[in-house]
Amino acid sequence: MPVAGYSDSKQGHQRRLRRIEGQVRGLQRMIDEDKYCIDILTQVSAATSALQSFALSLLEEHLAHCVAEATRKGGPEAEAKVKEASEAVARLVRS
């Protein structure tokens, strides 16, 4: 079974995701407590930024591991991995 490109950083990624989950729970709590809209929007921006940062980190690992390995091998697999990575970047840019 192939090893995921993020395997070495799995624990760090889990910690980051738990922090982001906490930020989202904090947003729910802010709504429950009728906090000021702008304060909530500020926290939405922080959570969005944290998710984008996580996504970029994961993408970097994917490029360095999975795509680099496929391009070393060459052929259709390399082309598919590059296309897949390009599509992932496009999705991130659109969001």
Order of helices and strands: HHH
Give the helix tally: 3
Task: State the total count of DSSP E strands.
Answer: 0
User: Termini, distance in Å?
Assistant: 32 Å
Portion of residues in beta strands equals under 5%
Describe the largest sheet.
Answer: none
Q: Which stretches are poorly predicted, pLDDT < 50 over at least 5 residues?
A: none
Mean of pLDDT: 92
Class based on secondary structure composition and strand pairing: mainly alpha
User: Which outline best applies?
Assistant: elongated
Using only C-alpha atoms, the radius of gyration works out to 17 Å
DSSP helix fraction: over 70%
Structure description:
- The chain is elongated.
- The chain is mainly alpha-helical.
- α1 runs antiparallel to α2 (37-73) and α2 (37-73) runs antiparallel to α3.
- The mean pLDDT is 92.
- It contains 3 helices and no strands.
- The relative contact order is 0.11.
- Helices cover 84% and strands 0% of the residues.
- The protein has helices spanning 10-32, 37-73, 75-94.
